[in-house]
Amino acid sequence: MKKQALFLLFTILSLNCFSQITFEKGYYIDETNQRLNCLIRNVDWRNNPNKFEYKLSEEAEIKTASLNSVKEFAIKGVSKYVRSEVEIDRSSKNINKLSTEKNPVFQKETLFLKVLVEGRSTLYEYVENNLKRYFYKKENSNIEQLIYKKYKTSSAKIGENNRFRQQLWLDLKCPDFNSNKLEALDYEKNELVSFFIDYNRCHNQEFANYSKKTKKDFFNLTIRPRLNNSSLQIQNSKSEARSVNFENKFGTGIGVEAEFILPFNKNKWAIMLEPTYRAFKAERVKPVNNLTGGELVANVDYSSIELPIGLRYYLFLNNHSKFFVDATYVIDFDSNSFIEYTRNDGSMVKTFEINSGSNLAFGLGYKLNNKYSVEARYQTTRQLLGNYDLNWSAEFNTSISIIFGYSLF
User: Fold this and answer.
1) Which of 183, 234, 243, 373 could lock onto 367 through a cystine, CB 3.0 to 4.6 A?
2) Which residue intervals of the chain bear CATH 2.40.160?
3) Cα separation of 347 and 292, whole Å?
4) What confidence tens digit (pLDDT) does each residue in 294-316 have?
């Protein structure tokens, strides 16, 4: 299982190699203040980038531009970044790493800042892993950080420096604003965006809201019936007579998949879990000379609820269709399942209660209109007799499942 887990990890990490490169209309401004219209690769950055890929046309080669050569770049209708040399406080908010210093500790850096609201006063964001800072610019002024910092007080309690409220109160005045509005303001993206929008509206100024995104579905619930091609091989190291091979057998199953789309990298990644009912029933008659009547009858009655949990990666073809690959860890909950051996006269030889183990699964599929899907899935071998001695093994294998899907929402 360790080798399978490593293979699963390798597969997940390698999925990005198959990603579709999507270039969208945009522009950048170079060191000479020249604006160049181009196509920019939109990777829906979670962290603020320090470089980006672009093409001057669909057929042109891919080039890379960085902080050293670009003052500003934007993807039309999606995002905008500006280069600025700013004073930034990188103090940790981790409780175990809190500083005893209340005031920010600034260091000068040149960064691409993401524009959230652009107008008479502009709001910017900088994100780097767990670090999140907001900056602002008044008319004809430099960009400054809005100051918020957690720190450890002399009594070992957690204090908060909320100086950003005072900055906004002093620099962004509006007759409609009162102290209560500022006191209730938190250092959060949505609240700051709303505040800057209110400020620009207060002064009847046009503004651009780059933080506004098209509403997307981040949860899908899908009914998924399937056709399974499965086999079971029982081995007894001390008795070849009791080793039985139940060859490939077709069966059905049905699952309900809950899929959670991750809100970054253009919604290409998803986490899913899928409770699935499946059943496998088979009988095999095996001639055995030393038994009365000369026949041994092996029966298996195996039903369970599988719970695949894993990652999925989408490769978009257009707005209506996409391929996907997924890798899952499958936990199996068997229900009143057994394997039994009887003689041909009906007398019992041996009965096993199935105690199934877990395994891995890998799938490749296609989805249309975010509604209809089909997937081919392969599962690795699953052991069904985990509680018995080493002389017995029962390896269950689903070589392929064809899964059809209909998304309810």
Assistant:
1) 373
2) 219-407
3) 11
4) 678 888 999 999 999 999 999 98
